[in-house]
Amino acid sequence: EEERLSFTSIIETETKRLSNLTKQLLILTSLDQSTRRLKCTSFSLDQQIKSLSRKYLWLIEEEGLELYYKMTPILFYGDEDLLETAWDNLFTNSLKYNKQNGSIQITIKEWEHHITIEFQDSGIGLRESEIPHLFERFYRADSSRTKEGTGLGLAIVKEIIELHGGEIQVSSEYGKGTTFT
């Protein structure tokens, strides 16, 4: 019985991993199509991100993390579904690579017709040599840090942000945390 439960757990874990990989590959394929059109609507950007983060409250509490918001209410015109995918990838990275009892701060500011969104964590950070490769497909920074991940999430984020006319930057200090802007 114990062996059966162990194998069942492995099958479930691998099924989730493959499902996630398939989902990410489908998103990338969709983004790669030269005929790709954004399905733009007006929506509240700050509410979208707050709503997204609420679905992870159980994990935030389980890890003893503190979640902070510094958000200006912003009505945004863009592809709501694609942007939610981008925020989800950034937020789950902040969770996955954080430290026990760490923090996540999400900031949204508007200035001179520009919007800046930051996902800042107090996690394990990145080595300087890893940063130039973060947005490459299938790149995983120091794969020994986690068994999770496909190396596609940040490549997807970059493509979605650029489709919306934006750019993404990262700053990090190894052992102290990372900020995606």
Explain this structure to me?
It is a single chain. This protein is globular. Helices cover 41% and strands 23% of the residues. The mean pLDDT is 86. Helix 4 (80-96) runs antiparallel to helix 5 (153-163). The longest helix is centred in the N-terminal third of the chain and has 31 residues, at 2-32. A five-stranded mixed β-sheet has the order 2-4-5-7-6, covered by helices on one side. The protein has helices at residues 2-32, 45-54, 57-62, 80-96, 153-163; strands at residues 40-44, 66-71, 75-79, 103-111, 114-121, 170-173, 177-180. It is an alpha+beta fold and 181 residues long.
The fraction of residues in strands falls at: 15-25%
Strand order within the widest beta sheet = 2-4-5-7-6
Distance between the termini: 49 Å
| Uncertain ranges | none
**Secondary structure tally: strands:** 7
Count of helical segments? 5
Main sheet characteristics: 5 strands, mixed
Work out the helicity level.
Answer: 40-55%
Overall radius of gyration: 17 Å
Q: Name the overall outline.
A: globular
Based on secondary structure, the structural category is alpha+beta
The overall pLDDT average reads 86
SSE succession: HEHHEEHEEHEE
Keywords:
two-stranded antiparallel sheet, 181 residues, globular, 5-stranded mixed sheet, alpha+beta, 23% strand
